[in-house]
Amino acid sequence: MSVQGACAMRPGATIRAGKSSGSTAASRRDLTPRRSALFAPLARAGAGGSNRCDDKKTSFSSSASRKVVARFGGDSRSRASRLVVRADGGDDTNPAVEEADPVAERAGIESGGLTDLMAQLSALQNENSKLQEDIETTKSIIASVKPPPEETAEEETDPAMAGIEAFFNQPQQKPREPIGAGELLSPPNEAAIKWPEPNENPPFWERPPIRMPENLDPKTCEITTKPLHVVHVTAEMAPVAKVGGLGDVVTGLARAHLCQGHNVEVCIPYYSSLEGKVEDVKHVMDFDVPKGEQWEWDGEKEIRMSDFQWSMYSGKIGGCPIIALRPAFREGSNLFVGQRIYGGSYNETEAYLSFCRASLECLRVTGRDPNVLHVHEWQCSAVAMLYWDVYHAQGLLNNAKVMLTIHNMDNTGECREEEFMATGVPGSEFNTLEKAMDERTIGHNPERLCLMKGAIVYSNYVTTVSPTYAREALNGSAGFLGKTLTKERTKFSGVINGVDTEIWDARLDNFLPANFKPGTMEGKALCKKYLQMGLGMNVDPHKPLVVCVSRLVPQKGINLIEHAIPRTKEKGGQFVLLGSGHSDPPFQRLAESVYKNDKDVKLLIFYSDALSHLLYAAADCVLVPSMFEPCGLTQMIAMCYGALPIVRKTGGLADTVHDVDDPSMSDSKKNGFVFEGADNNSLEGALDRAIRYYHERKPWWKGMQEQVMDIDNSWERAGEEYVQLYRMVTGIREDNDHY
Fold first, then answer.
1. Beta bridge partners of 233
2. Would you tell me which of 264, 370, 418, 531 could form a disulfide with 229, CB atoms 3.0–4.6 Å apart?
């Protein structure tokens, strides 16, 4: 059966426009009479006590399940039907009927409602008067039994309550005065800093951040003359739908392109864990999406097609417009329901395949036809396949070119044929060697699909997150996908990720006690002293501080991290580790034994975003000894704060850090210490050099700190590279382009 034939098996998609609401049940509620705002106060009053009104058919009780009566318009015989609305929001399916009130009808009030309203109002006024009398009586009783002040026992003050009271009783702060372009948020002033104590509770890094000024110097971007419409389709988006670097890339890239004047939208699943975290969320519509199931009986395959309803929401995450999709309320589905991203009990393959089809159907029913569909990772790879063989082939979407970005080739999206039916298209249509068949399963029963391979084949262009990682993939590190990438190498390249400079900026970072920038570096020394005091370390500006902020997993080179700790101390330095992960037990044991009271080593086996800012600002060196690293952000963040990175030469680390002693590099590109091996001796070669240069070449070191801070690792730089690729595949060029 052909792909087009499969799509023709379903009824036409229908659109159910809903109210602007944050609830998935909005469209269903439109069919249900809602409690009038006029009667809401009465319902609340009824829940609080007993009060019988003159109308014997209307009563209020302390039980929340008692009925509250509201009246609506009558029938053709001028008799009004009464809809019974419960205090819990339910409806009575057998409404009572009573005579219409002609006076009320002439007054524009629901039939029969005037008498009831007057009676209820009178009853409530009487009850209110009684309550006021009771309150005054209670006050007098309390005053009569209260002991005199001298006889009152002194109560023990609860520190937690005292802190809460102090917070709410503090005088209102005036807005900060704006700072000028290039000025520091907190200029270095040692006397003005509230220096931390080692045993503060809560710890010093949980102090409230510095109040930001009302107006910062605005970021300026060169506005494009030919804006592109780009829709990202992704499973993650920072900061609220983030697990790893994927979310950072999507948000950073979207912000950079929005600043340049492009029309950018991000389509993500509306995970239940995002409730309350999306700005300006509105329910836009419900729409039907084809979905299929494949059954097999006695060797015969049967395909059952149906329409599955999805809900579309609009809103913003991190200032970027989003399209959030999840199954409509009526479906009773558990897809994307869980306490965290990737944290539900649903089948992830089915969930993301359905989401891919819903994303394309959403574009169709809303009339969107973007210039670029930018899909990310295996979760959204089916978009590329379905776009060309279904939507473009049938003329449903005509404009877009498709770009795939591979963030990590460890996860490729293996999929059975019957699972692919979640898209409404048989998996057999793509399960060939030329399309999406996973070569590792040839000869198996059944043979399976690889979603990432399918996206590589179908996309107009494929990127990964660094040039070296792209070369490593072509040279064998991508496993079986290397053959497909080699075949498609003319449309494959690496683009270095960027750093979000709105978050990581030593000049404006409000987690720091003092800010700094090239030319005004005094604040960095104060940050180092602040951290040393807060962690109970030796306060010594002459000791080089080596910092490691990392997930503690094998990929990050945990054996090398463990070796670097005593080596740094042996060479006269200090070491601070911040991180956690499934490989952290050995570090936890070291923290609780060998280094428990050490004044030069602190192992912090957890993660704190605020503390990470302080560590980067205080660090002289940042260690990143990864076994493999598609791109890496740690080394680039370190440079934003004037810390020299010590890295293993792999992936994006090799592209962004160039050894200070490399004769093949110009002095302007040298920015750190690099080693190639995966053994302790290789690590020591780079680590020892860094510590020695810190001790012996002070003026040179200070110059290097300022030099690395001037390197452009921003998303504006990375975003421009992506725009050039977008324009290449779409043919839409700027007015001044001549390539």
1. 267, 375
2. 370
Of 396 and 59, more confident: 396
Q: Which of 69-78, 415-424, 511-520, 537-546 is predicted least confidently? A: 69-78
Are 548 and 639 in contact by the 8 Å Cβ rule? The answer is: no
> CA dihedral defined by 314, 320, 325, 328, rounded to 10 degrees?
-30
What residues contact residue 695 under an 8 Å CB cut-off, 6+ apart? 542, 544, 572
Question: 534, 535, 667: which is closest to 598 by C-alpha?
Answer: 535
Please choose, from the candidates 512, 533, 402, 514, the residue with its C-alpha nearest in 3D space to the C-alpha of residue 463.
402
The rounded Cα 108 to chain-centroid distance in angstroms is 50
DSSP string, 501-518: TTTS-TTT-TTSSS--BT
**Structure token digits, residue 206:** 């949980």
- Integer Rg of the chain from CA: 32
What angle in degrees, to the nearest 10, is found between the helix axes of 585-592 and 558-570? 30
**Beta strand extents in 318-439 (DSSP E only):** 320-327, 372-376, 401-406, 414-415
Tens of pLDDT, residues 149-163: 444 444 444 544 555
Q: Cα–Cα distance between 277 and 316 in angstroms, integer?
A: 9
Gap between the Cα atoms of 600 and 618, Å rounded? 14
Is residue 308 within 8 Å of 289, Cβ to Cβ?
yes
Half-sphere exposure of 247 (CA within 13 A, CB side): 15
Give this prediction's pTM.
0.75
Could you say which DSSP state residue 20 is in? S
Backbone φ/ψ region at 182: left (φ over 0), alpha (ψ -120 to 50), beta: left
The mean pLDDT of 483-488, rounded to a whole number, is: 96
Token readout for 465 is 């997150």
Alpha helices in 551-697 (DSSP H): 558-570, 585-592, 609-618, 634-640, 651-656, 680-696
Q: Is 265 left (phi over 0), alpha (psi -120 to 50) or beta?
A: beta
User: What length does the chain have?
Assistant: 739
Q: How many CB atoms lie within 10 A of CB 88?
A: 11
319 SS3 class? coil
C-alpha–C-alpha distance, residues 662 and 682, integer Å: 16
Cβ-based burial of 21 (10 A; exposed 0-12, middle 13-18, buried ≥19): middle
Whole-Å CA distances, 85 to 1, 28, 713: 52, 17, 60
Residue 668 phi/psi, 5° resolution? Answer: -70, -20
Mapping DSSP onto H, E and C, the string for 223-277 reads CCCCCCEEEEECCCECCCECCCHHHHHHHHHHHHHHHCCCEEEEEEECCHHHCCC
DSSP class of 489: G
Dihedral sign, Cα of residue 326, residue 328, residue 329, residue 330: negative
594 token code pair: 């060998």
Place of tokens 């002693």: 661
Distance CA 573, CA 567 (A): 9
Tokens of 528: 């180092």
At residue 270 the predicted structure's pLDDT band, cuts being 50, 70 and 90, is: very high
SS3 label, residue 648: strand
Q: Give the helix/strand (H/E) hosting 79.
A: strand 79-86
**Residue 513, CB half-sphere, CA atoms under 13 Å: how many?**
28
